[in-house]
Amino acid sequence: MKKTRFLFILMASATTAFAQQGEAAKEQRPDFILSGNLSSGASLFSVGFEKLFFIKSNVVLAAKVGFGYNQEFQLFSSEPPTNYFVMPHHVTCNFGMNKSYLELGAGGSLVRGGGQTYYLVFPILGYRYHPFRNPGFSFRAWLYFPFGQDFITEYNEVLFAPVGLSFGIAL
Questions:
Q1: Residue 133 phi, psi (nearest 5)
Q2: Are 62 and 143 members of one domain?
Q3: How many distinct structural domains can be found in the chain?
Q4: What is the CATH number of the domain that holds 145?
Q5: Taking residues 33-50, what's their average pLDDT?
Q6: 112-138 average pLDDT score
Q7: What is the C-alpha to C-alpha distance for residues 107 and 120, in angstroms, rounded to an integer?
């Protein structure tokens, strides 16, 4: 009887200790990301700030805004290319386990330059690596392509790659 009581107390205290460690790990998980992006939402490169909302341990909502740069696409021209200011942003839902997530969502980019303003909307499908500790390395890779049939004819001045990479620090 004493052994059973001792085992019960030992198991209860171990369960409590592991539950506290799990809660502490959830609280330590970084929810802000400062990132450098290559080919992010119609920009050649950009800097972004992202806020993560942990809904469950395997579901994370992400909202991001950034500022970037692009240049007019020219193959054979003697004129200097037009420079563009780009403001990419997105909202995604991430599903996964541990540090790896599948990312699904939508984004947009405000593109201004040369007296013109464009707004592009696109779906996002990607992969996200998110650290447990604070600070930590964060990585994203995604595919996207703007909605609309007029994209090729109307926005042909803006160089747009359908693949993006992001390297960041989770804070």
A1: -100, 160
A2: yes
A3: 2
A4: 2.40.160.20
A5: 92
A6: 88
A7: 8
Residue 93 in this model has a pLDDT that exceeds 60: yes
Same domain, 114 and 133: yes
What do you get for the CA distance between the two ends of the chain, in Å?
A: 50
Give the confidence band of 53 by pLDDT, cuts at 50, 70, 90. Answer: very high
**112 and 152 co-located in one domain:** yes
Question: Considering the entire predicted model, what is its pTM?
Answer: 0.77
21 and 52 both lie in a single domain = no
Q: What pLDDT, on a 0 to 100 scale, did the predictor assign at position 100?
A: 93
Domain extent at residue 10: 1-29
Residue count (the chain): 171
Cα angle value 101/49/159 (rounded, 5°): 85
Q: What is the pLDDT of residue 153?
A: 55
Residue 9 pLDDT level (bands cut at 50, 70, 90): low
